[in-house]
């Protein structure tokens, strides 16, 4: 097999930076909030249009496109030995409310461009190469992160949960999926499962979402591990009542219970003593939400993560104990304390680290080993495939806000490293 010939072509990898930037800009217009912010929620009209845009680009690159029952999209470039398990790459294009246009997108459009780069170089893959666009990496609509990749990893409990999962408007997951052109039949959901070994490698390109690469002037981050995420949904119920008439000693204010718990989350996280422990209350809702009505119900959603799973679990347990004692003290009921997900961390695979490191070296790009504090579909792909991630710098580490930015130069470097890594893995 002409490995050496292939590699000589690969020394002249050229990214079409102008087209890639244009695609990133165009994709960002499929948004429910005004530019520069991007909001693209699972199975919304804008999400469906964005999916069409991605499938069209995959087709233009000559990939054969397939979609599964929940809308994970696969674009395949058949290798010379299609019986071998394929090498996959990809990310997500859904965007949380008022976020930016690079999170996930760089790993989808960049993956399609990496394929174009390899095609232009004359490379012939041995293992097939696949670009994956994952359904709903973000938990916005149904509260479940990495929905598509969790299902690919074969998590039975999620199939069960999705039968009864509804969004904030009480629309069921299956109705929403159906309205976007995917399944309505929950029996179909488990068809998304992939067998372990379906892929020989999975590599995801992503913006760092942290400040290190930019600060240190390093173009490529090689991810060795992804921190362990968890999320919890909490509800307190009190009596409510008139804000003027009910005197302070007679109240059971569910809103104040929520406020106390939010502060307890911060305290428990800080008590861990490690800078790697983080916790956030990103959702806090009061019912009925009127200035002159004592909150009768409150709803919090808590995100906590750590690179050390044990330490994160201790934080979760402390949050639970605090929720119980706050409820008792305030005479409200803790009507829900539900751990939505409590995932272990994931480690990158040595063989993929080696391929990524060799690739950046051959391209004369300096690199740094780092951990990912954000989660990614790679966290779940790691359960069924050897996994690795390539990070590129982003402006001040900004992410999950409209100011998110990566230069096309940095993106192009990432695409080149991805292309060369895929080429190497495809020949292994
Ligand atoms: C998802 O984007 C996360 O890491 O929060
Ligand atoms: Mn994100
Ligand atoms: Mn992302
Ligand atoms: Mn993420």
UniProtKB/TrEMBL annotation:
Q: Which cofactor does it need?
A: Mn(2+); Ni(2+); Co(2+)
Q: Which GO terms describe its cellular component?
A: endoplasmic reticulum
Among InterPro entries, the record links this protein to:
Amidase_Cbmase, Bact_exopeptidase_dim_dom, Peptidase_M20
Q: Which UniProt keywords apply?
A: Endoplasmic reticulum, Hydrolase, Manganese, Metal-binding, Purine metabolism, Signal
Q: Which SUPFAM superfamilies match?
A: Bacterial exopeptidase dimerisation domain, Zn-dependent exopeptidases
Q: In which pathway does it act?
A: Nitrogen metabolism; (S)-allantoin degradation; glyoxylate from (S)-ureidoglycolate: step 1/1
Gene3D superfamilies for the chain: 3.30.70.360, Zn peptidases (3.40.630.10)
List the Gene Ontology MF annotations in alphabetical order.
hydrolase activity, acting on carbon-nitrogen (but not peptide) bonds, in linear amidines; metal ion binding; ureidoglycolate hydrolase activity
Annotated GO biological process: allantoin catabolic process; purine nucleobase catabolic process; ureide catabolic process
Q: What is its EC number?
A: 3.5.1.116
**Subcellular localization, as worded in the UniProt entry:** Endoplasmic reticulum
Q: What class of enzyme is it?
A: hydrolase
Tell me what reaction this enzyme catalyses. (S)-ureidoglycolate + H2O + 2 H(+) = glyoxylate + 2 NH4(+) + CO2
CDD domains, sorted: M20_bAS
Subunit structure of this entry? Homodimer.
Q: Which family does it belong to?
A: Belongs to the peptidase M20 family.
Q: Which PANTHER family match?
A: ALLANTOATE DEIMINASE-RELATED (PTHR32494:SF19)
Which protein is depicted? Answer: Ureidoglycolate hydrolase
Give the organism, scientific name.
Rubus argutus
